[in-house]
Design a protein that fits this description.
Length: 218
């Protein structure tokens, strides 16, 4: 444990890395890598749903292994972390929900309206299944946590999830989903956020959470 007033651990603090990369270069790299993540996401879906012959499965595996080896020829020592430049541009390419290079993350664009509503639309396919044909409850929580965190941070402060409560009103079918979140109220360093996850027929999960501005971030 770290002393009060400090980041929880050197490891945590170390993921916020200042990097002297101009915004145009960050944008160029994102444009280069995003289609690769899209293709890998497609590969994940195809891996789940393929019905090809055994030999074809073995052959594809060999090709995928070769591709992995090519990408690993030069790579970071650990996770991608959160990076920022002098222009205030931040990027977190490995983020589990919005990482531009993360094929595990559903493609999600989080939008903040002028009135404070934060929302995101995406389509969840076979990789996000829990009950048959339905979104895994943990995936719903993942999306809600992130969008609620964005609402709490208001793009100007660090907040961490303190407590997250969810009520699964009905199952969420795989397919198009929408997350909405807004700040309900604030008390000192505690930010209370309410949110919903829904399908085209309406709300499927209701959530409320307490997001904390950690003492080390004040
Ligand atoms: C500029 C940057 C913008 C970036 C935008 C990007 C958006 C990204 C969005 C990503 C989204 C993804 C997000 C993620 O995935 S965040 C990852 C998941 N969350 C965590 O890992 C958090 C782990 N916990 C901690 O680090 C600490 O325990 C925290 C920071 C939470 C509090 O430690 P701290 O030492 O700071 O707190 P304190 O003891 O001084 O207490 C202060 C007040 O808070 C109250 N309290 C304490 N704990 C809890 C609790 N668990 N629930 C409810 N309330 C709690 C406490 O009673 C007190 O209230 P009061 O007595 O004053 O009334």
């Amino acid at each position: 444990m770290s002393a009060p007033g400090q980041a929880p651990s050197a490891g945590y603090a170390a993921v916020f890395v200042h990097e002297d990369v101009p915004t145009a270069e960050v944008d160029r790299l994102e444009a280069l890598h995003r289609p690769l993540a899209d293709s890998v996401r497609d590969l994940v879906d195809a891996t789940i749903r393929t019905t090809v012959e055994d030999e074809e499965v073995r052959a594809v595996r060999a090709e995928v292994d070769a591709l992995v080896a090519r990408l690993r020829a030069r790579q970071l020592d650990g996770p991608a972390g959160v990076r920022y430049n002098a222009e205030g541009r931040t990027w977190s390419w490995g983020n589990a929900v919005v990482g531009e290079r993360n094929a595990v993350a559903p493609p999600l664009e989080v939008v903040r309206d002028p009135d404070g509503l934060v929302h995101a639309d995406t389509v969840l396919g076979a990789a996000y299944e829990g009950p048959p044909g339905m979104v895994h409850g943990g995936v719903g929580a993942l999306l809600l946590d992130h969008v609620m965190g964005v609402a709490a941070s208001a793009h100007q402060r660090v907040t961490l999830t303190g407590t997250l409560t969810m009520r699964y009103v009905r199952s969420t079918p795989l397919g198009p989903v929408r997350v909405e979140a807004r700040i309900e109220r604030e008390e000192g360093r505690k930010v209370f956020v309410v949110a919903t996850l829904g399908d085209p027929d309406g709300v499927t999960v209701e959530a409320d959470g307490v997001f904390i501005v950690p003492r080390w971030a004040v």
